Every structure is written in structure tokens, then in C-alpha cells.
Amino acid sequence: MPLRLGWPFLRREFPAASLANPTRPLALRLGVNIDHVATLRNARGGREPDTLRAAHVVLKAGGDSITAHLREDRRHITDADIARLKAEVPLPLNMEMAATDEMVAIALKTKPHAVCIVPERRQELTTEGGLNVIAARKTLPAMVQRLNDAGIQVALFIDPDRAQVEATRDVGAPALELHTGEYCNKSGAAQQHELVRLVEASAFAAQIGLEVHAGHGLTVHNVGPVARIAQCVELNIGHAIVAEAVFIGLDAAVRQMRAAMDAGRPGSAKP
Ligand code: PXP
User: Fold this and answer.
1) Does domain 19-263 have CATH number 3.40.718.10?
2) CA 32, CA 54: separation in Å to the nearest integer?
3) pTM of the prediction?
4) Whose CA is nearest to atom 15 of ligand 1?
5) Over the stretch 238-250, which tens digit does the pLDDT of each residue have?
6) Measured from the CB, is residue 218 less than 6 Å from ligand 1?
7) Is 163 exposed, middle or buried (0-12, 13-18, 19+ CB in 10 A)?
8) What is the 240 CA–ligand 1 centroid distance (Å)?
9) How many whole angstroms separate alpha carbon 176 and alpha carbon 265?
10) 77, 83, 120, 242: which could join 68 in a potential S-S bond, CB 3.0 to 4.6 Å?
11) Cα-to-centroid distance, 113 and ligand 1 (Å)
12) Residues with catalytic annotation?
């Protein structure tokens, strides 16, 4: 039976078997994380740069979705950003959030296309390490079900670890985002080792029916091998794109990342 992936607007269906063992390249979506546009705006407390304007540039440049992390401390993206991005941007919104009742309530009210549940500690600079789904086996299922029932695709942000992948399936999430931070932070043989972990976790996740996303720390220089992971259908990338936008503009930075992904997996851009 064909498996409909979680982004109905794309109207793409893949035979279930092709996810585990694709014979031709699956489409690879680029979700652009615009948290740092908000970081810059908040530095002066005004309205510029506007996250909505950034989202429209991403749309024009060929991005497939907007990713925004509503942190508990609201250090960058605000509740108003989330509401405006959902209401005024014709791109799917992927809301990153902690597994708290407050965030679930906001997601149920806003109805983004997807949520990615991430671990959150206030002191961290960014999301450090994946969610421990095994430890949250008792609390996550009810949360995931409420979001699933509302038609919101749920992904769990996890390290490329087989037991965490299995736990993701067990708590009822249809998708996962593999944390690429360790791969990005390392070099040489250590980086290759991390890449193998990502490849193996992706193959296993697809084999047990999960949709595979990846992200964190990706740049035009390191994205190729991750884009090549056959089962992965979405990359979420923020910092490198917004950083490069300072020099070449956001439109060009998004296109540059898309080109680097396409070089890694030819034929994966949307038609
Ligand atoms: N995916 C998740 C779950 C994240 O938490 C982040 C960082 O907010 C990203 C992707 C994007 O990471 P980066 O900004 O390093 O590209």
C-alpha cells in the first residue's frame, strides 16, 4: 500500500518499500530555520529583520518549509512569530518545541504542519544532544497522540542511535530528525564514523516505517554526504544559511544550500 508522507501539500506518494530501499532518489526537502533572523531582531528589540519577510524570501528561493523553534524562554522566536508564520506564509511550518504541556497547547492552537520535539535546557546556546526518548517512554505517547490526532506530523529529534529510533516508533511518532551535530563537529575518521551512524540509523528507521529527517550544524561544506543518505527526505538548516546571508543575502544563501544538497543527491530537488 502506498505510504503518504506527512506533507500533504507536496502530494507525493512513495511505495512503502522505496523508503527502506529506494531505487531512485527520493525528494529531499530543505526546511530553513529562521530562528537567527529573530535573534538579530531581538538584539535591538524592534521589528527588523522581520521573520515574515525572511520566510517569504525562503519561499521565493525554493525552500520547502519554514522551521522555527519556540523556546520556553522565547529568546528568539516569539508566539507572535509562530502565529504570523502560520497565518501569512504559504509554506509548511515546522515548529520545534520542548515536550511540555504549554508547547503542546500552542501547537494544537496554531496547527503547524509539523512539530519537531527537541530537548531544551535554558543554559544551552542551541539544542545540544538529542531527545532521550527511552527515558520519556511513559510521558511522550499521550503528547504525540494528541498532536497526531490534530493532523500535525510529529518528529522526534534524536541522536543516531538504534535504541532511540526504536523508542521513537514505540511512542507513536511517525518521523524522526537525526541530530547531525556530532558529524558536523568532527573531522576525518571521527566524522566518517558519525556519518556511518547516521546512515545506519536512517536505514533502520525507514525499515521500521519512520520518515527520516536530519539537521543541526549543517553547512554547504558538510551537507553533501548527509544529503546522499537515501532514506532521508528532509534537512532542517538554519545557522549556516542565516550566517551566509549576512554576506550574500538570504535568497542567495538558500539557493546555495539547495545547490549543495543537490550536488550530494542529484535529482532530489522538487520538480
Ligand atoms: N534541527 C533542530 C531540531 C534544531 O534544534 C536546530 C537548531 O535550532 C536545527 C535543526 C538547525 O540547526 P542549525 O541552525 O545548526 O542549522
Assistant:
1) no
2) 10
3) 0.91
4) 217
5) 999 999 999 999 9
6) yes
7) exposed
8) 10
9) 20
10) 77
11) 17
12) 69, 96, 216
